[in-house]
């Protein structure tokens, strides 16, 4: 073999970069098949199986609706309070999607051999339905959640579906639950929606699942973004806010009364406290699945989250690589506002593209809003913890915040990084006006204070 032949062979072994591209190519090819099937432009070579069809959805109302608890009740705090109904839709490889059903909330029955229980074939979405100041119920950019749900499902070999039909199912479900669970008398209230898909095929073979179940449930959440409630809960799309004071819900459904065991626990603590991840625990990597909303991203992260809690922090700030690239904060995207090296006010967040960042709907909305406003420079690029430390040292660090559905926009007070406490101005008693301004703008859309195409009104049934 000539030296050049050897060189060619060795460069063809997968690198992180080429793996990311392969994964992307695989997902895209499956998605394009789904899409063309949805548009029925092509006659599929295989037998035609049924797509998801919201018009076939049946509704069986519960005969015994639950009392709706107060938002500060223990049941709500534990994030276990589901509404009266759920929507389910079964899929089989042979027949496709069966008619969706809205029916009383209750246990699922799956076999111990179900794929999801062994191979983590599960993906989900997190979104909210809001009762607006005008009495209408809205979803926020549901098209984005529908598209991401399809992409996550595709990444783990779960079946595709028409995103338009999924949205209709979702709206139908919200329409059924809204009257009782988002009382029209109480403006500015929301329920959290959790669309989920699992592979239910009862067989241990490691293969594409032949049966799946899509379901949608709704959960009452306390008002997590209001500092006076003093709550903090880690969920896959939220970040904690303040943590002193009353009991706070935890990921495992238990409630702890002392939030920060070893901090000074002052009641006026405002910001989220972050613990930077150690180099030996990585949330996501190029070519992995950090960009898909799959349960497999969360189980392995709980140990680090637990450590953060035990040490008095709210969330982990996930770093990547020897360079200490900043990726996400807990289950939310992460933004920094600073004066860049050229002295310009700049909003920075990690870029999409290599599979390490989940494309949050909140992230996209922050970027869109700030770009439209044009008062600060907006960049999506890789940035490191060292850059944040330098900005702090030079007095250029302005604000940091997490962005996700459950907690919205959560300003950061400090980050602990390898023995260093990096304190944001908020942690020194200043205000996070930039983050709070964005939060207000988003809230206005969600609660219908302004009419905006991102706020989609749902008909109540
Ligand atoms: C869901 C999620 C987010 C936030 O996404 P939103 O659509 O804004 O709620 C961010 N990071 C991760 C890892 C997530 O799972």
From TrEMBL:
GO terms for cellular component: mitochondrion. PROSITE patterns: AA_TRANSFER_CLASS_4. InterPro entries: Aminotrans_IV (IPR001544), Aminotrans_IV_CS (IPR018300), Aminotransferase-like (IPR036038), B_amino_transII (IPR005786), BCAT-like_C (IPR043132), BCAT-like_N (IPR043131). Residues 252-267 have a biased composition (Low complexity). Residues 1-21, 228-267 are annotated as: Disordered. Keywords: Amino-acid biosynthesis, Aminotransferase, Branched-chain amino acid biosynthesis, Pyridoxal phosphate, Transferase. Belongs to the class-IV pyridoxal-phosphate-dependent aminotransferase family. This is Branched-chain-amino-acid aminotransferase. It comes from Exophiala spinifera.
């Amino acid at each position: 073999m000539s030296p050049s032949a050897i060189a060619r062979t060795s460069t063809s072994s997968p690198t992180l970069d080429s793996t990311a591209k392969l994964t992307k190519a695989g997902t895209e090819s499956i998605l394009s098949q789904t899409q063309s099937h949805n548009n029925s432009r092509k006659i599929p070579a295989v037998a035609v199986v049924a797509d998801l069809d919201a018009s076939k959805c049946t509704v069986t109302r519960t005969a015994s609706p639950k009392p709706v608890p107060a938002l500060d009740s223990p049941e709500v705090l534990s994030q276990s309070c589901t509404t009266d109904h759920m929507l389910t839709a079964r899929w089989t490889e042979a027949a496709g999607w069966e008619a969706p059903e809205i029916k009383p909330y209750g246990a699922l029955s799956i076999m111990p051999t179900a794929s999801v229980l062994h191979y983590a074939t599960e993906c989900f979405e997190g979104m909210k339905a809001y009762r607006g100041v005008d009495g209408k119920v809205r979803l926020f950019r549901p098209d984005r959640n529908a598209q991401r749900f399809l992409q996550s499902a595709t990444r783990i070999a779960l079946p595709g579906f028409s995103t338009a039909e999924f949205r209709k199912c979702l709206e139908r479900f919200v329409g059924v639950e809204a009257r009782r669970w988002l009382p029209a008398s109480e403006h500015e209230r929301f329920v959290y929606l959790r669309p989920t898909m699992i592979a239910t095929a009862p067989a241990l073979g490691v293969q594409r699942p032949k049966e799946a179940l899509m379901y949608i449930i709704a959960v009452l959440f306390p008002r997590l973004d209001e500092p006076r409630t003093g709550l903090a809960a880690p969920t896959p799309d939220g970040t904690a806010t303040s943590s002193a004071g009353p009991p706070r819900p935890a990921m495992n459904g238990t409630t702890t009364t002392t939030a920060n065991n070893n901090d000074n626990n002052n009641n006026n603590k405002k910001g989220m406290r972050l613990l930077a991840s150690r180099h030996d625990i990585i949330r996501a990597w190029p070519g992995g699945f950090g960009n898909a909303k799959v349960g497999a991203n969360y189980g392995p992260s709980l140990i680090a989250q637990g450590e953060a809690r035990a040490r008095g922090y709210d969330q982990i700030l996930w770093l990547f690589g020897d360079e200490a690239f900043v990726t996400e904060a807990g289950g939310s995207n992460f933004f920094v506002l600073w004066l860049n090296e050229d002295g310009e006010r700049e909003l920075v967040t990690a870029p999409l593209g290599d599979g390490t960042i989940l494309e949050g709907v909140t992230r996209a909305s922050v970027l869109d809003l700030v770009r439209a406003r044009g008062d600060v420079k907006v960049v999506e690029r890789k940035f490191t913890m060292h850059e944040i430390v330098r900005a702090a040292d030079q007095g250029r660090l302005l604000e940091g915040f997490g962005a996700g559905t459950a907690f919205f926009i959560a300003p950061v007070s400090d980050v602990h990084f390898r023995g260093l406490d990096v304190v944001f101005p908020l942690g020194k008693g200043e205000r996070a006006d930039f983050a709070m301004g964005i939060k207000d703008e988003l809230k206005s859309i969600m609660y219908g204070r302004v009419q905006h195409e991102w706020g989609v009104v749902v008909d109540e049934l």
